[in-house]
Structures are given as C-alpha cells and as structure tokens.
Design brief:
The protein is α+β, with helices and mostly antiparallel strands. The protein has 19 helices and 10 strands. It starts with 16 loop residues before the first helix and ends in a 6-residue tail after the last strand.
C-alpha cells in the first residue's frame, strides 16, 4: 500500500485541530477500502481545510494521496494527470514542499505504470530536491522505491545499495527502517539466484536479524513479511514449509518465481519447469490486462476529449449566433439613426430660412434706431460722468469703514486665541505631569514584577540553565521560575497569562507565588497543575487563565516528569554541538489552561532520561511574532533557528532564537511578551 503519511500540522483557521485529526484518521481508514467516492469526499474536505489553515504539508500530502489512490485502483492516467496538476500548482505558488511531494508522487505512479525511465528520473530528482531544500528530512521513501525497482529488474546488488542509503537518512521512521531491511533481505536472497556459486546465507541471516529488530521497534510487521519468510525458509533448506507458505500467497509472478527456486534447490526440475511456465502465463496475463486497461483509459480519455471538443464547438456556434443577432440589431439601429439624421437636416434647413428673415428685419430696425441713438449717447455721457464721481466718493468711504472694522475684528480674534492657547498650555502641563507619574508607577511595578523572577542561574557542573523575559508593555503576563530541592530535584515552569498589562502582571504574580509554595512540598508536576487550577479558578470573575509547562528533573538520574497545561510544545535538541542539531517538538498530552475549569485533574508524562539533551521552552510571543506585513515568524522558522548551527550553552540558544525572531520582525513593534527558558542536564561521573 502506498500512502503518504501526514506529520506535524499547523493551527487550522476554519476547522479545529480536533476535527482535522478526526478527518485525517477517516482518510487513512478509507484508503485501503474499495470505496472511491467516500475516500475522495473525505480527502477533498481535508485538503480544503488544510488550504484554509495555510497547512502546506497536509494540503500537498492529501492531494498526493488522492492521486496514489487512483493509481492503486488502476486509474493510472487519471492519477498521472492529478499529480501533474499538483506539480503545476506547487510551481506556480513557489511551494518547495509541494514540488518535492508532487515529484515523489509522479515517480511512484510512473513505477506502477512500468515506465521505468520516467519513474527513475522523477524519484532521483525528488531525492536531490529534498536534500537541497530540506536537509534535515528523510528521503528514505523515495530511496526504498528505487530499491524495489532495481530488485524487480534483477539488479539485486544495486537494490541493496539504495536500501542501505535509505537507512542512513536523517529522521528515519521505524516503518521505513523495516521496509529498507525487508528490501535488503529479498535482494540478498535474489542474489543467490543470479550467483548460485556464492553462499549468501550468512549475509541473509544478518539482514534478517536487523529486520527483526526493526519489526520489534515498530510493533508490527510490514507487507513483505510472507515474502521475506519464504526466502528465509529457502535459505534454511526448509523447502516444504516454503512451498506451503507460497501457496498462501496466491498465484502471482513473485510466488511462481520463488517456487521455481525451491524446486531447483530440491532437484525437482520437472515442477521447476511447470512453475516457470505458470510464471510466464501470469506475466502474459498481467501484461495483457495492463495493456487492455491502459487502452480502455486511453479510449476514455479520447472520448472525454471528443466530448470536450464537441462542447467547445457548440459554445463557439452559440457565440456566433449571438454575434449575428447583435449585428442585426446594430444594422436596425443604424437605419433608425439615419432616418432621424435626415429629419434633423430638414428641420435645420427650415431654421436657417427663418434666421435669414430675422436678420433682414433686424437691419431695418437698426437703421431706424441709429438716429435716436446719437442723441441718447450725448445725454448718457454727461450722466455717466456725474455718476462716476459719486461712485468714487462712496467707494472711498466704504473702503475706509471696512479697514477700521477689519482691524477691530483682528484684534478681537487675537485676544481670544491667546486665551485659548494659555488654557491649552495649562492643560498640557497637567497631562504631562500625570503621564510622568503613571510612567514612574509602571516602572516601579515592572521592577517589582521582574524582581519576582529568578535572575541568578545555577552554577553547577551537572546543569546549564538560562531564562529571559521581554515584556511587550511596561508590565507583562509571561512568567518563569525554577529552584532546586534537596540538591537534586530541579523544579521549573514557564507560563503565559491571558491578556497584557497590569491585570496580566497581577495574575502572573499570584501564579508565581502559588507555584513555588506548592512545588516546595515536593509534589509531581501534574499535581502542582491541579492544585494551581483549584486556587486560581476561585473568584476568577474576569475569566483569566494561564498556559503553563511544569517540569521536574532528577539531576542525578536525568529522569524527567512534566505536565503541559495548554502551553506550546517545547523543543528537544539532540546533538546540540553537531553542524546541524536535530531539533524537534515534543509530542505530549496538552491538557487545558490553568484557571478555567474547576475540579479538572491534569495528566502528567515522563521521559526516562533527558541527560545531554537540551530542552527549549518558550511562550507564543516568540513563534507568533509578526513583521510589518503581519506575517508570523512561525514554528518552522523557530525550529530552523535552533537547527542552523551548533551551540554550547543555554544562554547562547535563547539569544540566537530571539535574535532570529527580531531579524524577521524588523521595525514592527513587539506585540506580545516573549519568554524563553533553556536547560541542559549533564552526565557528571561520581567522584
């Protein structure tokens, strides 16, 4: 069964994480069943939910699983088209993970279609792309597919080589380790067929033993268990048991191939011949069925293409008819317009004749009025001279009055403005004094709050611990605390109070005081969280709460007990001094935040030994920091900051993580408190 597993998911925006987890389990349960409609309905809903939540990995992996489902159910051409569509979408959206996932899917589908060259090219390209852009992730699935291809085409030694490459990949899962050893066992057993003069039983026994270890680590076997068991029986000379197990596998090429080997080893060449004949018949039947199915898919695609072409021609014909109808309407409108223009020209001609007659009548009247106008002009000149003198005198008087009134109005307005300016200055002085008093009180409150947090860190050979808090306002709601009880029990916590400012700081102070008083009684983290909740939920009228991660480490044994109360998952950092440390989020029971629900009993967990593995705990002000475009820093960038280069101290890890986040944020204002705590328990030999 080919199914792309889905790892860590980001926070959904339109569907809760619980709903998406349930839908993901449904997709997994439907994959092996022959109910395409139900599977694709659930898978498409999961794909849409992942896209809405900007969950890139779930989105592309679900898309690939739809293509692989169709390929497994003999809809190879349809599956190939879906994978090509996924790749084009990933390239258009510059999604590196989408490009890798689609390349891997194309390789698997081409392998199913027996297109060896295309499958090899796609899978090797996917491996190179993953190593270039995701160096900390495993390319084992693609390497194992290449190993299977080489094994199917009789290149057993090369198949072993690629399976061994898969075993060296970083972050190898137990299932992929088991698959790789299964491929090595089958390839080694096949090698004995092509090289009968060699004795490969010892090499096979070693591979079998390693496969048994991988199976025990996984907790169950893989789909190759019966085939590997047949080869083990053959190598041990248990031929009858091997034949019986082959019969349970049913008639298929690999079964008849193994039967041929068994009969040859027994010296029964007649049955070996018949097994070989059956092998050829089955292969011919499979090839005939495959060719028939491919031909059927090609015919279906051609029929679909013809239907699409007919539909396109019909749409074009409808468009042509609509255009002809529009042209007829335009011609009709043009004819109506020409008729209107002709009528207007006739009216214009009549108006021109009337205007000419009016001009003639006007000339006659003008001649009659000319004589009268000369006399009236002389009288008008005399009257105009007298009127101008009176107007000049009146205008001078009015202008003088306006100037006097304007000066009086200007002086009145200036006096009013001076009065308002003095009142505003007095008010500004009072506000400034009050603001300075509030700032002074907030500084005192911040000093008090910061004094509640420990700033002296242990100076011990068996422990490296550092913590820092950077508040978004003068006072904040983040907290951390730690102390060592009886010189070996390290208690610590990191928390984030809902809200910001003075209310959050008061709730934070109460939480810190209660944590230390309860923890000093030597209680376990889950019990500390339960008792904190019982105290904080009382009289909590503002419904404030705090997310907390509480831990207890035995510094002599490295035993780690912890309880996560709705807080961000901490990061475990393995090989911190390697060129690229292995940083991963802890998987744990999240519980609920403290202070919301009365009588809630918190669940605790433990790790047997955390020695020499740094633990990085933080609040969401770090991974949810936003730049000027309101893009979040995110979990992936946080993990990458801890993986990018080695570090030697807890202080160095915290400073680097914060510096990387500030570099991403740029000039944007800090929107939330940022608190981090990093610790490393060291193995110190007893003196």
């Amino acid at each position: 069964m080919v199914l792309i597993s889905i790892g860590h998911m980001s926070h959904a925006q339109t569907m809760s994480k619980a709903d998406r987890d349930a839908l993901q389990k449904k997709v997994y349960s439907l994959y092996p069943k022959n109910d395409q409609a139900a599977f694709e309905e659930a898978a498409n809903r999961l794909k849409a939910a992942a896209e809405a939540a900007n969950d890139e990995r779930t989105f592309y992996k679900t898309w690939s699983n739809i293509a692989l489902y169709r390929a497994v159910h003999m809809q190879r051409n349809s599956a190939l088209n879906i994978a090509l569509e996924e790749r084009a979408y990933a390239v258009a959206h510059n999604s590196k993970f989408g490009i890798y996932t689609s390349m891997y899917t194309l390789g698997v589908i081409q392998k199913m279609m027996d297109n060896r060259r295309q499958a090899w090219a796609a899978l090797t390209e996917a491996i190179d792309y993953l190593h270039e852009h995701f160096p900390g992730e495993s390319a084992a699935p693609a390497l194992i597919e290449l190993s299977k291809m080489l094994q199917a085409y009789g290149q057993a030694n090369e198949a072993v080589e690629y399976a061994q490459k898969a075993l060296k990949e970083p972050g190898l899962t137990p299932l992929h380790r088991l698959n790789a050893w299964s491929s090595i066992c089958i390839a080694i057993a096949d090698t004995s067929v092509y090289h009968p003069e060699g004795d490969y039983r010892e090499e096979f026994s070693h591979a079998w033993a390693e496969r048994e270890k991988a199976k025990a680590a996984l907790g169950h076997d893989d789909s190759y268990r019966k085939v590997v068991e047949v080869w083990r029986l053959i190598n041990n000379g248990e031929f009858d048991a091997a034949l019986a197990l082959c019969d349970s596998l049913g008639p298929k090429p690999s079964t008849e191939s193994m039967k041929t080997v068994i009969y040859k080893r027994k010296g029964d060449f007649e049955n070996a011949y018949y097994a070989t004949q059956r092998l050829f018949k089955i292969k011919d039947s499979i090839n005939a069925y495959r060719n028939s199915h491919l031909l059927m898919e090609m015919r279906a695609d051609m029929d679909m293409g013809r239907m699409q072409l007919d539909a396109k021609e019909l749409r074009l014909r409808n468009q042509q008819l609509r255009l002809e109808h529009v042209n007829d309407e335009l011609r009709q409108e043009k004819m109506e317009k020409d008729a209107i223009d002709l009528a207007l020209k006739h009216k214009e001609s009549e108006l021109a004749n009337a205007a000419a007659k009016l001009r003639n009548d006007s000339l006659e009247a003008s001649n009659k009025d000319l004589t009268i106008s000369e006399y009236e002009l002389k009288n008008a000149v005399l009257m105009s001279s007298e009127r101008n003198r009176l107007i000049t005198t009146s205008a001078a008087t009015i202008i003088l009055l306006l100037i006097i009134g304007g000066l009086a109005f200007f002086l009145h307005r200036r006096r009013l403005q001076m009065q308002k300016l003095k009142a505003a200055y007095d008010q500004l002085e009072a506000v400034t004094t009050a603001h300075e008093r509030i700032n002074s009180e907030l500084r005192i409150a911040r000093d008090i709050q910061m004094s509640m947090l420990p700033h002296q860190f242990p100076d011990r050979p068996d422990l490296d611990l550092f913590a820092a808090m950077r508040a978004a306002k003068a006072v904040g709601g983040d907290l951390y605390d730690f102390f060592i009880l009886d010189d070996r029990q390290l208690y610590f916590c990191v928390g984030d109070v809902s809200g910001k400012g003075v209310p959050a700081s008061l709730f934070m102070a109460m939480t810190c005081r209660l944590f230390r008083s309860i923890a000093e009684e030597g209680r376990m983290p889950a019990e500390i969280a339960t008792r904190l909740n019982d105290n904080l939920v009382k009289d909590n009228e503002n419904s404030m709460f705090v997310t907390m991660f509480i831990g207890l480490i035995d510094l002599q044994t490295g035993h780690f007990d912890y309880c996560n109360a709705g807080h961000n998952a901490p990061v475990l950092i393995r090989r911190p001094q390697a060129p690229h440390p292995d940083a991963t989020f802890m998987e744990m029971e999240s519980n609920v935040p403290i202070g919301l629900w009365p009588d809630f009993r918190f669940e605790g967990e433990h790790i047997d030994n955390i020695a020499n593995t740094p633990l990085f705990i933080y609040t969401d002000g770090l991974n949810e920091a936003e730049d000027e475009a309101q893009q979040q820093y995110g979990d992936d960038r946080l993990i990458e900051s801890l993986r990018s280069q080695p570090f030697t101290t807890a202080r160095e890890a915290i400073n680097r993580a914060y510096a990387k986040a500030r570099q991403f944020v740029g000039q944007a204002e800090q929107s939330d408190d940022v608190t981090s705590l990093c610790l490393l328990v060291k193995n110190v030999p007893a003196k």
